[in-house]
């Protein structure tokens, strides 16, 4: 998911949030929402669809206030329905609290039972609603906003980057492992919170720093207060670095574009091949392909053209079209492909279905040889911390060896980046990352009941 928040009296906060969410659209395409607080008066609009489908100018004009919180949803828990759209709200003795969540709790079931036992009505089926109710409960028990929020956070296990709006100010916080990103920006002396720095650039805000793992920032008109509520043990999601976040975002001040190019360079050293042309699977494979081409000295060309307008809400193609392959999204360019020995570079293979179709399309366009290079290690384990990977039995690398995968997707050769290569390419030499989907080394313990839902 994508989260965004701003406190800026006198500015059009809903409109700024709209543009922030627009830049975070890649983090979730199912639903979008903006909540605005004018003192303790709450106005909110949320619905299914893309940011540009959910909002128009007239709606944004109705969202008046000093503080705004926004969300784009990508479901990891709870079904894809309007009732699960965010921000989520709780009414407290101190006024409303609105919350936008990116991540996934691993103790959601337990938290839900505890809240229901205290007669909370939970409308949604998401862990995010539980967090906002836990905050509401603590505040109604007599705690202040920061104290109450910290109390609620300590009941949560898992991954959570949160933006929280209250009549007293705006809060941003990350779990002790800082699995999901959250950054602070400044705009004309005001503070902005966003999942990624690309949402700061789009509104002209400057990147100040990341919210630290286990930190809560409380932003009021008098400035920014920092509270360290949990001992930080950084385990940033490395899949954000490799694939999920936008390449024009920075994580821990590191450019993801540059990181991905470096992955491609290391991949070229680890898995060289004689070929005529390096082609990316756009857009996610492009930086790594540029790095691979540079390090190998092989020509870089675009051989697959992407149609950027194919979204998740796209009308399903006919069976005849489906049989014709994936060409609606990626169309091969025979001019580049015909008669060539091709290195095709992508960021990851999850199920292997896309990769198989791409290889087929390259062969249909006359490729002489197809060598696939992947700028991450094999995905062998599911994610429980907010990336919607399939259950383990759907992950092709969980059950097949690299050779078997190569046969399945019908390439002449296949190679993945090593775990060492992936870690070496970070500026911290791999310190402070979650790598569980590549290694099975889960930094946050997962209760058995949850583990069984995805792990075989
Ligand atoms: P596959 O061959 O596994 O079917 O697809 C691999 C492609 O899926 C890669 O191009 C990669 O960029 C993309 N991908 C990787 N992770 C995810 C994900 O979590 N969600 C979606 N929609 N695509 C992903
Ligand atoms: Fe990221 Fe993979 Fe860890 Fe999930 S399991 S947080 S996708 S590195
Ligand atoms: Mg891709």
TrEMBL record:
It catalyses: 5-phospho-beta-D-ribosylamine + L-glutamate + diphosphate = 5-phospho-alpha-D-ribose 1-diphosphate + L-glutamine + H2O. Its cofactor is [4Fe-4S] cluster; Mg(2+). Residues 1-222 form the Glutamine amidotransferase type-2 domain. Mg(2+) binds at residues 284, 346-347. It is an enzyme of class 2 (transferase). SUPFAM superfamilies: N-terminal nucleophile aminohydrolases (Ntn hydrolases), PRTase-like. The active site is at 1 (nucleophile). InterPro entries: GATase_2_dom, Ntn_hydrolases_N, PRTase-like, PRTase_dom, PurF, PurF_N. GO terms for biological process: 'de novo' IMP biosynthetic process; purine nucleobase biosynthetic process; purine nucleotide biosynthetic process. Pathway: Purine metabolism; IMP biosynthesis via de novo pathway; N(1)-(5-phospho-D-ribosyl)glycinamide from 5-phospho-alpha-D-ribose 1-diphosphate: step 1/2. Its EC number is 2.4.2.14. Keywords: 4Fe-4S, Glutamine amidotransferase, Glycosyltransferase, Iron, Iron-sulfur, Magnesium, Metal-binding, Purine biosynthesis, Transferase. One of its GO terms (molecular function) is 4 iron, 4 sulfur cluster binding. The keyword Iron-sulfur applies. Signal peptide: none annotated. Binds 1 [4Fe-4S] cluster per subunit. Binds 1 Mg(2+) ion per subunit. Catalyzes the formation of phosphoribosylamine from phosphoribosylpyrophosphate (PRPP) and glutamine. In the C-terminal section; belongs to the purine/pyrimidine phosphoribosyltransferase family. PANTHER family: AMIDOPHOSPHORIBOSYLTRANSFERASE. NCBIfam families: purF. HAMAP family: PurF. This is Amidophosphoribosyltransferase. It comes from Gloeobacter violaceus (strain ATCC 29082 / PCC 7421).
């Amino acid at each position: 998911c994508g989260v965004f928040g701003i406190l800026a009296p006198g500015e059009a906060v809903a409109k700024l949030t709209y543009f922030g969410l627009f830049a975070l659209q890649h983090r979730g395409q199912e639903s979008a929402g903006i909540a605005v607080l004018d003192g303790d008066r709450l106005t909110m609009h949320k619905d299914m669809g893309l940011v540009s489908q959910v909002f128009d100018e007239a709606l944004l004009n109705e969202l008046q206030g000093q503080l705004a919180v926004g969300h784009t949803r990508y479901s990891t828990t709870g079904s894809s329905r309007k009732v699960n759209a965010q921000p989520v709200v709780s009414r407290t003795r101190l006024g409303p609290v609105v919350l936008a969540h990116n991540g996934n709790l691993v103790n959601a079931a337990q938290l839900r039972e505890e809240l229901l036992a205290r007669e909370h009505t939970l409308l949604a089926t998401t862990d995010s609603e539980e967090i906002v109710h836990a905050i509401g409960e603590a505040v109604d028990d007599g705690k202040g906003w920061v104290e109450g929020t910290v109390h609620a956070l300590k009941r949560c296990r898992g991954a959570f980057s949160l933006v929280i709006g209250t009549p007293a100010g705006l809060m941003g916080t990350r779990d002790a492992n800082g699995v999901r990103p959250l950054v602070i920006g400044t705009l004309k002396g005001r503070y902005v919170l966003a999942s990624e720095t690309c949402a700061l650039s789009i509104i002209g805000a400057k990147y100040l720093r990341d919210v630290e793992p286990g930190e809560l920032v409380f932003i009021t008109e008098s400035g920014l207060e920092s509270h360290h509520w949990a001992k930080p043990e950084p385990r940033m999601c490395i899949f954000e670095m490799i694939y999920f976040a936008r390449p024009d975002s920075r994580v821990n001040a590191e450019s993801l574009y540059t990181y991905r190019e470096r992955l491609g360079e290391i991949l070229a050293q680890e898995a060289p091949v004689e070929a005529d042309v390096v082609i990316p699977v756009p857009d996610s494979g492009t930086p790594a392909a540029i790095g691979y081409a540079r390090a190998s000295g092989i020509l870089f060309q675009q051989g697959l053209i992407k149609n950027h307008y194919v979204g998740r809400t796209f009308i399903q193609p006919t069976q005849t079209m489906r049989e014709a392959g994936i060409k609606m999204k990626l169309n091969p360019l025979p001019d580049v492909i015909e008669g060539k020995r091709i290195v095709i570079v992508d960021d990851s293979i999850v199920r292997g279905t896309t990769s198989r179709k791409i290889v087929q399309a390259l062969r249909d366009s006359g490729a002489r040889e197809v060598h696939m290079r992947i700028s991450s290690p094999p995905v062998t384990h599911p994610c429980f911390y907010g990336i919607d990977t399939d259950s383990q039995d759907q992950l092709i690398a969980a059950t097949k060896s690299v050779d078997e995968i190569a046969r399945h997707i019908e390439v002449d050769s296949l190679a993945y980046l090593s775990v060492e290569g992936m870690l070496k390419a970070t500026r911290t030499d791999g310190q402070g990352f979650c790598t569980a989907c590549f290694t099975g080394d889960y930094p946050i313990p997962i209760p058995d009941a949850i583990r069984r839902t995805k792990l075989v």
